[in-house]
C-alpha cells in the first residue's frame, strides 16, 4: 500500500540559509504524524512545503502517490487536496461559523453543503454556535471551527501548525485528545507540528524530532522516550539525567548506580569506553532497603507522585518519580534502586 | 476605457472642423470678466470665441508644449510682464494693425507689435482720512520715509502687480535707490503683508494701518457696495513720473490657426464698445483715450500715468522680485 | 534562480501604474540637467533658508497638529461613551468636504485684525493688540491641522474600532492604567493607520499652495511658484520640485526603516466601550464640539452668508453642467484610483521584492508634488505624443490639433497620478489586516488566486476600498491645477469656477461653487461614516 504522505530527501533553502536539508519520512493512510522541535528547527517550513506554500529546492513530496512537489512539478496549494489548521486559526472574520466551515465546499450542491456542514458541526460539537462570528467564540471553539473547516473538504492529508499553542494548558491537553479522536473518527491522515512533546505524544502515532532542519529520530512516542537515538533527543524528550559510566570487559555498562546490560554505543570499543547513561525519573525507584543512598535536594508534588531531585554520594544529580505516599523532606537521605531493562548510553563527548 | 478616449477624440475632431469660424483664446483673465466681452463680439461679428482659462505660467507652458498644434489663436493676461515674457519665449507673433496703433497709446503696447494693452490697472496710494491728510501724501518713495513707521500696509511681493510696480521703479531710479525705498517700506509695515488688496484696504479702514498701495478697481468694487467705506484714493507721483499703471492685454499666438480672427478680436477689444465694457465690468481704465471710464471711477478725478513703456515691467520683473527678496519684502 | 534577472511579476503589475506618476515626475526631474546658476545663487542666498525653516516648522507643526486633533477624537468616538458620541462619530469627518483654502480664507477673515472677532474686542475694550496674529506660523499650522486632521481621524478610528478596546483591556490585565495603556498599547498598535493618515496630511501640506498663499506663508511650494511665475524660470522651479520629491522619498524610506520587520496584523475583537464619567464626559463633548465648530460649522455658515449675497447674480443655467462634470470626474477618478490602488497594494503584498516595493512607493509620490508642477509634467508628454502622432498621421489626411489632449482619459490618468497615494493608503492598510494564514487557509481549502481575491480579499477589503474611493472623490472635487491644465475647452467644473473667482480675490462669489463642492463632498462623507459605524 502506498503511503499517504512521502517526503523524500526534501531541502528548503532561504536566500541566506538552508532551513531543511534532505529530509525524508512517510505516513501511512490514517496515521497521525508529528514534527516535534524547538522554534526555528524547520518544522513549520516542512509543513508549509507539504502544503505548497514553500517550494523545495530539492527532493520530492508525494501525497497518496501523486507527486505534488519535485524538481519538475510544483502543484499549487489549492490543487493538493489538503486541509490545514493554522496557529492563529485564520478564521474569516466576515463569515459566521457555518460559512467558515462551508468555505471550501463550493463544488457541492446547496443541500450537500448543508449536510456536510451539519456533519462537521456535530463532529466538533458546535451545533449551537453555528450562527456566531469568530470573534464571538472562545479560543477552543475557534480552534474546532478551524479543524471542521479544514476537514469539511475531506482532505487527503490534514496539516496542523501548532494548533494548540494559543490555548491554555488544561484546554490544550483536552483538545489534543479531542482532535485525535476527531481525526481518527474521520480516518484522516494528519501531520502535526509542535514544540510541545505532551501534545505530540497525546495526538500522534509517530513523532519526528527535528533539529536544525533534519529529523534526528522518527519513531513512536514510546520508542522516543525509552530509546532516544542520541543525547539531544534524550535531553529533549522527557525528563532525566545523563550519568557518566564506563563499558567493562564483558560489554556491560558500569556506573554509580550499578552495572547493566545494554547495547554499547557504536564507535565505542569494548572495555574502557567512556559513556553517558540516560537515567529517567521512572527508572529510579525508592527502596529503603537499597544500599545506594541519595539526599533529597528538591521535590515537586505532582498529585499521585513526587518528583524528587536527588544528590548521589558522588554529587551527581538524578531525578526520581516516587508514589506520593513516600513523603520525604529536603535534606533527608533515602535509599534508591535503578530499574533498567537496558541501559541507554552515548559515547562521552 | 476605449470609449473614454474615443468620445472626446471624436469631439475633438469635430471641433477641429469648426475652428475656421471661431477664435480660440487662452486667457489668464478670468472667465466672468472676459466672457461678456466675447459674447458681445460674437453678436457683432458672428465669430465664435472659445476660451480656456488658467494661470499665465501653465498657459505659456501649454503653448510651448503644443507647438504648431496649439489650437490657441490668442493669449490674454492681466499684466504686461507675462505678455512680455510670452513674447520673449517666442510664443507670440508680431502683428501690424492701424486700428490698434490708433486705439492703444504707444507706451501701453509692445514696440514690436507682439502684444497690446487693453485695459489699464492703476496702482496707487490709499489712506484713512481719519488719520491722514492728503497733503501728507506724495509718492510711493515717500512711503519709505520713517514718518510712516508702523503705519504702512502692503500686499505680498509675490503678486505680479507689486513686481511690476517695483520693476517700473527700477526703470525710473535704478536698482540701488529702489532697493533702499523697498527696505524703507518693509521697515514701515504695520502688519505682516497681506495676501490680497481687498484685505489690505479693509485693514486701512479698520485702522490697523493708515496708508497702503492697491489697484484702484479693488477699491472700486468695495466702494460700489459700501459708499461709506472709510478709505480714500490718492493719485501717487503726480509730480514725479505719474501713477504706476499696468495693463491687461493680448497678443496673437505664434502658431495661430485663425490669425485674422484673432486680430479682429483684439481690434474689437480696443474699440469703443469693448473699452466701455472693460470699464464697467471691472472698473478698470480704458486704454483707448477716446473712451471715458466708469462714472464711479471717473469720480476719483483725472490722473497722470507713468508713461514708461510697459515692456520694462516684463523685462525687469525678475530683477524686481530678487530685489524684494533681498530687501526682506515677503 | 535563473529568473533572478527578469523583473518579478510584482514589478510587471506595478510598473504601468507607477509610470503614470513616474513619467510626469521624470519630466520634472529632467530639469536637473539644465542648471540655472544665477537664479539658484539668488534662491540659496535669499529664499531657501527661510522657506526650508518654514517648511520644517509646517511639517512638524501640522504633523503634530493632525495627530493631536485626530487621535484623541478618534479614540473618544471609537472607544468611549459620552453625550453626543454617535453624532460626533460621523460629524467630525465633515471637514473632509471643506476645501482647505476656503477654511483658511474664512478663518483669516474671522480672526484677523479686520475680522468680526477683533472688531468686537476693540469696540468692547478699545484695543485688540493682545490678540494673537492669525497670519503667522501658528495660525497656518492651526488651520492646516483643522483642514487635514480628518485623514488621521478616519484611519485611526478604523484602527481603534477594530482593536482598541480589546487592546486596552489586555493591557489593563497586565496592570497598566488606562491612560498608560492608551499611549503604550493602543496608539502604537494603530501605528500603520496613523502613519498613513499623517503621511496624507503632510504630503498635502507640502504640496499646498492655496492655503499658505492666504497666509502669505512662504514654503518650499511657494518658492517653486516664485521661481516659475515671478522669476520666469520653470527649470529652476522644477529643480525645487525635484528636491521636494526627494525629500518625501527620504521620509518614506525613514518610516520604512523605523517600522522594520514589525507586523501589525490584528484580529478583530469586541469589548465594552469605556464609559466616561462626571466632568470628563462633558469635556469630551465640548472638545468634539469645538473642533467641529471651528473646522466646519463656522466656515459653512460664512459660505452660506456669501452665497445668499451672490446667488441671484451668479447662479445660472450652467451650474447643473458644472455640478454634473464635477461629479462625473470625481466618480470616474475615484473608481480608477481605487482599482489602481488595489492592484498596487496586492502587488506589494504578493511580491515582496524590492523592485515592487519601490515602484509602489514611486507611484504614490504624486500627492506630494505641487499640483501645477505635476500638471505641467503631465501635459508636456501628452502634448509631445500628440505632436508626434499628428505629424505621422497628417499625410493620411488627418486634420486635427489634438488626439489625447483634452480627453477625459488623459484627465483621469493625470488625476490618478496625483491621487494614487490617497487611494493607496486605506487599501493598503486594509490589506495588511488580512493575515497571511487567512490567505493560506483559503488556498488550502482549494481556492485559486482569483477565487481567493473574490471570496476573501474583496469582502475583507470592502471598507478600505470604500474609504479610498470616497477620499479620492472628495479630493478630485476640490482639485484645481490638473483639472485646469488637462480639461477640454468649455469643460469647466465647480473647482474651475472656484479658481476663476478666487484668482481675482472674489471670495464671496467663489462661495457658490465652493458650497456645491462641500455639498457634493458631504454625500460620500456620510456614506463613509455609515460604513465605519458599528
From TrEMBL, chain B:
Q: Which UniProt keywords apply?
A: Signal
What's a Pfam family in this record?
SBP_bac_8
Question: Looking at the record's lineage, which domain of life comes first?
Answer: Bacteria
Q: Cite the CDD domains for this sequence.
A: PBP2_FutA1_ilke
SUPFAM superfamilies in alphabetical order:
Periplasmic binding protein-like II
> Which stretch is the leader sequence?
1-20
InterPro entries assigned: Ferric-bd, SBP
Q: Which family does it belong to?
A: Belongs to the bacterial solute-binding protein 1 family.
Recorded protein name is Binding protein component of ABC iron transporter
Organism of provenance? Jeongeupia chitinilytica
Identify the taxonomic lineage of the organism of origin. Answer: Bacteria, Pseudomonadati, Pseudomonadota, Betaproteobacteria, Neisseriales
Amino acid at each position: 500500500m502506498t503511503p499517504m504522505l512521502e517526503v523524500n530527501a526534501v531541502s528548503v533553502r532561504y536566500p541566506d540559509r538552508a532551513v531543511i536539508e534532505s529530509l525524508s519520512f512517510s505516513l501511512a493512510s490514517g496515521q497521525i504524524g508529528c514534527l516535534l522541535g524547538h522554534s526555528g528547527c524547520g518544522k513549520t517550513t516542512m509543513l508549509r512545503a507539504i502544503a505548497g506554500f514553500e517550494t523545495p529546492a530539492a527532493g520530492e513530496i508525494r501525497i497518496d502517490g501523486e507527486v505534488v512537489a519535485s524538481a519538475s512539478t510544483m502543484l499549487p496549494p489549492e490543487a493538493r487536496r489538503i486541509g490545514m489548521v493554522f496557529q492563529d486559526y485564520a478564521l474569516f472574520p466576515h463569515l459566521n461559523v457555518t460559512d467558515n466551515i462551508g468555505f471550501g465546499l463550493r463544488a457541492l450542491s446547496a443541500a450537500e453543503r448543508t449536510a456536510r456542514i451539519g456533519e462537521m458541526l456535530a463532529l466538533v460539537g458546535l451545533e449551537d454556535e453555528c450562527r456566531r462570528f469568530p470573534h464571538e467564540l472562545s479560543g477552543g471553539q475557534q480552534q474546532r471551527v478551524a479543524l471542521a473547516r479544514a476537514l469539511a473538504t475531506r482532505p487527503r492529508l490534514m496539516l496542523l501548525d501548532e494548533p494548540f499553542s494559543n490555548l491554555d494548558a488544561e484546554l490544550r491537553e483536552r483538545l489534543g485528545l479531542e482532535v485525535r479522536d476527531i481525526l481518527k473518527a474521520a480516518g484522516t491522515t494528519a501531520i502535526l507540528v509542535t514544540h510541545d512533546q505532551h501534545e505530540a505524544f497525546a495526538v500522534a502515532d509517530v513523532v519526528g524530532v527535528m533539529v536544525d532542519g533534519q529529523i534526528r529520530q522518527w519513531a513512536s512516542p514510546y520508542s522516543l522516550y525509552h530509546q532516544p537515538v542520541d543525547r539531544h533527543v534524550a535531553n529533549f524528550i522527557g525528563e532525566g539525567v545523563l550519568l557518566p559510566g564506563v563499558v567493562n570487559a564483558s560489554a556491560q555498562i558500569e556506573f554509580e548506580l550499578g552495572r547493566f546490560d545494554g547495547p554499547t554505543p557504536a564507535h565505542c570499543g569494548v572495555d574502557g569506553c567512556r559513556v553517558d547513561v540516560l537515567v529517567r525519573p521512572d527508572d529510579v525507584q525508592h527502596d529503603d532497603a537499597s544500599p545506594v543512598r541519595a539526599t533529597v535536594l528538591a521535590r515537586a508534588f505532582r498529585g499521585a507522585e513526587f518528583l524528587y531531585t536527588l544528590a548521589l554520594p558522588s554529587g551527581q544529580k538524578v531525578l526520581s518519580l516516587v508514589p506520593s505516599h513516600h513523603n520525604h523532606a529536603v535534606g533527608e537521605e533515602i535509599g534508591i534502586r535503578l530499574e533498567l531493562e537496558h541501559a541507554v548510553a552515548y559515547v562521552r563527548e | 476605457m476605449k470609449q473614454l478616449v474615443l468620445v472626446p477624440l471624436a469631439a475633438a475632431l469635430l471641433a477641429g472642423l469648426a475652428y475656421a469660424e471661431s477664435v480660440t483664446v487662452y486667457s489668464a483673465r478670468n472667465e466672468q470678466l472676459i466672457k461678456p466681452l466675447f459674447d458681445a463680439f460674437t453678436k457683432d461679428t458672428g465669430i465664435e470665441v472659445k476660451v480656456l482659462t488658467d494661470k499665465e505660467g501653465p498657459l505659456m507652458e501649454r503653448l510651448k508644449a503644443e507647438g504648431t498644434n496649439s489650437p490657441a489663436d490668442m493669449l490674454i493676461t492681466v499684466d504686461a510682464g507675462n505678455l512680455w515674457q510670452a513674447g520673449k519665449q517666442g510664443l507670440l507673433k508680431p502683428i501690424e494693425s492701424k486700428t490698434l496703433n490708433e486705439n492703444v497709446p504707444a507706451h501701453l503696447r509692445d514696440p514690436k507689435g507682439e502684444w497690446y494693452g487693453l485695459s489699464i490697472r492703476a496702482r496707487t496710494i490709499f489712506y484713512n482720512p481719519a488719520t491722514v491728510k492728503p497733503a501728507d501724501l506724495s509718492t510711493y518713495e515717500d512711503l519709505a520715509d520713517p514718518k510712516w513707521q508702523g503705519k504702512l500696509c502692503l500686499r505680498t511681493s509675490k503678486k505680479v502687480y507689486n513686481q511690476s510696480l517695483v520693476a517700473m521703479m527700477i526703470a525710473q531710479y535704478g536698482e540701488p535707490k529702489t532697493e533702499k525705498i523697498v527696505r524703507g517700506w518693509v521697515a514701515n509695515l504695520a502688519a505682516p503683508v497681506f495676501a490680497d488688496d481687498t484685505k489690505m484696504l479693509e485693514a486701512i479702514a479698520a485702522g490697523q494701518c493708515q496708508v497702503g498701495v492697491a489697484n484702484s478697481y479693488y477699491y472700486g468694487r468695495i466702494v460700489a457696495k459700501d459708499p461709506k467705506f472709510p478709505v480714500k484714493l490718492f493719485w501717487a507721483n503726480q509730480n514725479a513720473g505719474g501713477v504706476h499703471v499696468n495693463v491687461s492685454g493680448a497678443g496673437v499666438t505664434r502658431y495661430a490657426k485663425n490669425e485674422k480672427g484673432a486680430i479682429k478680436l483684439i481690434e474689437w477689444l480696443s474699440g469703443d464698445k469693448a473699452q466701455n465694457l472693460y470699464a464697467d465690468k471691472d472698473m478698470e481704465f480704458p486704454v483707448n483715450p477716446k473712451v471715458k471710464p466708469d462714472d464711479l471711477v471717473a469720480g476719483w478725478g483725472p490722473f497722470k500715468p507713468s508713461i514708461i513703456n510697459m515692456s520694462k515691467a516684463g523685462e525687469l520683473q525678475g530683477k524686481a522680485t530678487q530685489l524684494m527678496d533681498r530687501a526682506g519684502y515677503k | 534562480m535563473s529568473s533572478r534577472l527578469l523583473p518579478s511579476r510584482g514589478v510587471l503589475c506595478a510598473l504601468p501604474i507607477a509610470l503614470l506618476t513616474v513619467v510626469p515626475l521624470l519630466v520634472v526631474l529632467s530639469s536637473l540637467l539644465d542648471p540655472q546658476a544665477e537664479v539658484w545663487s539668488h534662491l540659496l542666498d535669499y529664499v531657501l533658508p527661510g522657506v526650508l525653516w518654514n517648511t520644517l516648522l509646517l511639517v512638524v507643526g501640522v504633523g503634530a497638529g493632525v495627530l493631536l486633533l485626530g487621535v484623541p477624537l478618534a479614540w473618544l468616538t471609537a472607544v468611549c461613551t459620552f453625550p453626543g458620541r454617535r453624532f460626533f462619530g460621523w460629524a467630525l469627518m465633515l471637514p473632509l468636504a471643506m476645501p482647505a483654502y476656503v477654511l483658511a480664507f474664512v478663518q483669516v477673515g474671522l480672526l484677523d485684525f479686520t475680522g468680526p472677532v477683533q472688531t468686537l474686542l476693540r469696540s468692547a475694550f478699545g484695543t485688540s493688540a493682545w490678540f494673537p496674529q492669525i497670519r503667522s506660523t501658528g495660525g497656518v499650522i492651526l488651520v492646516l491641522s483643522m483642514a487635514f486632521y480628518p485623514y488621521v481621524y478616519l484611519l485611526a478610528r478604523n484602527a481603534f474600532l477594530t482593536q482598541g478596546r480589546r487592546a486596552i483591556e489586555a493591557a489593563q490585565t497586565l496592570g497598566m492604567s488606562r491612560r498608560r495603556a492608551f499611549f503604550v498599547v493602543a496608539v502604537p498598535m494603530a501605528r500603520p493607520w496613523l502613519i498613513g493618515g499623517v503621511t496624507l496630511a503632510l504630503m498635502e501640506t507640502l504640496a499646498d499652495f492655496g492655503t499658505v498663499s492666504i497666509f502669505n506663508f512662504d514654503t518650499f511650494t511657494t518658492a517653486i511658484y516664485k521661481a516659475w511665475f515671478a522669476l520666469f524660470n520653470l527649470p529652476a522651479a522644477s529643480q525645487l520640485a525635484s528636491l521636494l520629491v526627494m525629500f518625501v522619498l527620504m521620509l518614506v524610506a525613514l518610516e520604512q526603516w523605523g517600522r522594520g520587520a514589525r507586523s501589525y496584523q490584528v484580529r478583530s475583537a469586541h469589548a465594552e466601550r469605556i464609559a466616561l464619567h462626571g466632568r470628563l464626559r462633558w469635556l469630551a463633548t465640548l472638545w468634539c464640539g469645538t473642533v467641529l465648530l471651528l473646522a466646519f460649522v463656522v466656515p459653512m455658515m460664512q459660505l452660506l452668508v456669501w452665497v445668499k449675497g451672490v446667488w441671484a447674480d451668479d447662479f445660472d443655467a450652467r451650474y447643473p453642467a458644472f455640478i454634473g462634470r464635477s461629479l462625473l470626474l470625481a466618480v470616474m477618478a475615484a473608481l480608477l484610483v481605487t482599482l489602481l490602488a488595489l492592484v498596487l497594494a496586492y502587488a506589494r503584498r504578493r511580491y515582496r521584492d524590492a523592485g515592487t516595493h519601490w515602484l509602489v512607493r514611486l507611484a504614490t509620490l504624486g500627492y506630494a508634488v505641487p499640483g501645477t508642477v505635476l500638471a505641467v509634467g503631465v501635459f508636456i508628454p501628452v502634448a509631445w505624443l500628440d505632436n508626434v502622432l499628428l505629424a505621422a498621421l497628417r499625410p493620411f489626411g488627418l486634420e486635427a490639433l489634438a488626439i489625447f489632449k483634452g480627453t477625459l482619459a488623459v484627465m483621469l490618468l493625470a488625476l490618478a497620478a496625483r491621487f494614487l497615494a490617497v487611494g493607496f493608503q486605506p487599501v493598503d492598510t486594509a490589506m495588511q489586516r488580512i493575515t497571511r494564514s487567512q490567505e493560506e487557509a483559503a488556498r488550502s481549502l482549494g481556492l485559486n488566486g482569483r477565487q481567493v481575491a473574490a471570496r476573501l480579499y474583496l469582502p475583507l477589503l470592502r471598507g478600505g476600498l470604500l474609504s479610498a474611493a470616497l477620499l479620492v472623490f472628495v479630493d478630485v472635487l476640490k482639485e484645481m491645477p490638473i483639472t485646469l491644465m488637462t480639461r477640454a475647452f468649455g469643460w469647466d467644473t465647480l473647482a474651475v469656477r472656484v479658481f476663476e473667482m478666487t484668482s481675482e480675490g472674489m471670495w464671496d462669489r467663489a462661495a457658490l461653487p465652493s458650497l456645491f463642492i462641500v455639498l457634493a463632498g458631504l454625500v460620500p462623507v456620510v456614506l463613509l461614516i455609515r460604513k465605519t459605524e458599528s
